[in-house]
Design a protein that fits this description.
Elements lengths: L1 H7 L9 H4 L3 H37 L6 H21 L23 H14 L6 H19 L5 H17 L2 H12 L8 H22 L16 H33 L4 H19 L8 H9 L6 H21 L6 H18 L5 H17 L2 H12 L2 H18 L16
Helix pairs in contact: 3-5, 3-6, 3-7, 3-9, 4-5, 4-11, 5-6, 6-7, 7-8, 7-9, 8-9, 8-16, 10-13, 10-15, 10-17, 11-13, 12-14, 13-14, 14-15, 15-16, 15-17, 16-17
Length: 428
């Protein structure tokens, strides 16, 4: 009996002593600050180049800044420029971006300059991708390389976790996003010690990255939409329907993704794949308008400033065009991430729902649309919930989103993801 009781007693993992965690604080803070500064530096440089390419240059040539002609010229030229980097720069700007997710491998140092240059050109040129994947990959590569050289006593896996957490903190302006992503990645894996011990150093890095970004760049995700009052049954129904529609729409792009990737791969050379991809993006930009260009964060702020400024048909067009542009840009070889443009797609979908049914509050529609779209595109439940909630900055919305996430998750779980294996088959 005593033996049976001992076997049934729960086991508790021993907590790490403070002396084991204290030496991790300084490396975590250094990685956090450095990762944030690299992210901000690339973002600011890309914004300056964007101003030259999309304002100064067309003004000097007497061409409309966002005319159809200039969209075709700039997006095709961006494809040529990135194609040259992928073709000629040592390291070829890293692996095929269609195979990359938020969890980046530690790339060798020779790859990192080309990847950073390709990402900056992409951000400035207008393709519908965000900075997250390449910036995380560069920060991970630098952290592992420098960490092994100067602090070799720490394991290489720690530097990966610190850099990923720091970059996520810098990107979202809060360490909470990093903690959620790391917690999700640890689920189902054997971990040594308590969960919070494993989060201690990455959370410090994420906090340093977030604070640095806030101090030097003043980024904010809050769209300042009209606040939500006391939710009722209509709000619950709206959140469920919009999130489910967003998930289904996102899955359309997910299922099309491997076929688009295979079509571009038949061109075989980056100097064909990327310019042709730029040409297709130019056509999509002409169809959807200038708001469907670039990573999408500045554009969703413009939509949110005037939710009544476009018709339901215009919102629907922007939704479909931006989603198609995301799938094309990610499959033809542009170096970038999928989260930020997916946020634009979800925002446009939510505002379309509001334009169709006035009873759908803009904040509810936007948050639910972003939730459903991110669940389909990223398959990261915590990131999807967090991003959707932070856009409207309302505690009330979080409860609605938790309810809406259930049917949306059932629509996406177990199905292909918008990420491919090296052989071109979708990750599940």
């Amino acid at each position: 009996m005593a033996q049976d009781s001992a076997q049934q007693a729960p086991t508790t993992a021993p907590a790490a002593p403070a002396r084991a965690l204290l030496p991790l604080i300084l490396p975590a803070l250094v990685v956090g600050v450095a990762s944030s500064l690299l992210f901000v530096g690339v973002s600011v440089a890309a914004e300056k180049l964007q101003g030259v390419l999309w304002q100064n240059l067309p003004d000097a040539l007497g061409i409309g800044r966002y005319s159809v002609l200039w969209m075709f010229v700039m997006l095709t030229a961006t494809g040529i420029a990135v194609g040259l980097v992928v073709w000629k720069v040592p390291g070829h700007a890293g692996p095929d971006p269609a195979t990359m997710g938020l969890n980046a491998p530690a790339l060798p140092p020779v790859v990192l300059p080309g990847l950073l240059l390709a990402a900056a050109l992409m951000l400035a040129g207008g393709p519908s991708l965000g900075p997250e994947n390449p910036i995380i990959a560069v920060n991970v590569g630098l952290a592992v390389w420098l960490g092994r050289r100067f602090v070799s006593r720490l394991p290489g896996g720690l530097w990966v976790a610190l850099a990923e957490a720091a970059t996520l903190g810098a990107l979202f302006g809060t360490p909470v996003a990093a903690a959620l992503v790391i917690s999700e990645s640890l689920a189902g894996k054997p971990i040594k010690g308590l969960l919070w011990d494993n989060l201690f150093a990455p959370l410090a890095a994420a906090a340093a990255g977030a604070l640095t970004t806030d101090l030097v760049h003043h980024a904010s995700f809050d769209l300042h939409l009209p606040p939500i009052g006391r939710p009722d049954g209509g709000d619950v129904l709206a959140a469920i329907v919009v999130a489910s529609v967003g998930a289904l729409l996102g899955m359309c792009a997910v299922y099309a993704f491997p076929y688009l990737h295979a079509a571009f791969q038949r061109l075989r050379h980056p100097m064909l794949m990327l310019p042709v991809g730029g040409l297709v993006l130019g056509a999509l930009g002409a169809l959807g308008g200038p708001l469907t260009l670039f990573k999408g964060l500045d554009q969703i702020a413009e939509l949110a400033r005037n939710p009544e400024g476009w018709s339901a048909g215009q919102f629907a067009t922007m939704t479909v065009v931006k989603l198609a542009a995301l799938a094309v840009a990610a499959s033809c070889g542009f170096r970038g991430g999928r989260i930020f443009p997916a946020v634009f797609v979800g925002t446009a979908l939510g505002l379309c729902a509001h334009a169709l049914v006035s009873g759908v509050q803009p904040a509810v529609g936007v948050a639910a649309g972003v939730l459903g779209m991110l669940l389909a595109v990223t398959r990261q439940g915590w990131v999807s919930l967090f991003t959707a909630a932070v856009l409207v900055a309302s505690p009330t919305t979080l409860a609605l989103l938790c309810i809406a996430s259930l049917p949306a998750w059932l629509l996406v779980t177990g199905r292909p993801q918008m990420q491919l294996h090296d052989d071109g088959s979708p990750v599940r």
